[in-house]
Specification:
The chain has 1 helix and 2 strands. The chain has one helix at residues 24-36, and strands spanning 13-18, 41-46.
Length: 47
């Protein structure tokens, strides 16, 4: 474990529901926030 320095938690894939009227800038901000929070992938679904 010391050699590989693995963490016990893996990076999750996260899906976020965004309002239908969200602009591309807002969607990009949400995706960036999710990835910055530690997600491996961020998927967006329109409401």
């Amino acid at each position: 474990r010391k050699v590989h320095k693995r963490t016990t938690f893996s990076k999750p894939k996260i899906i976020v529901c965004v309002p239908h009227g969200a602009t591309p800038v807002e969607k990009r901000a949400i995706r960036t926030s999710v990835l910055t929070a530690g997600a491996r992938k961020a998927g967006l679904i329109a409401e």
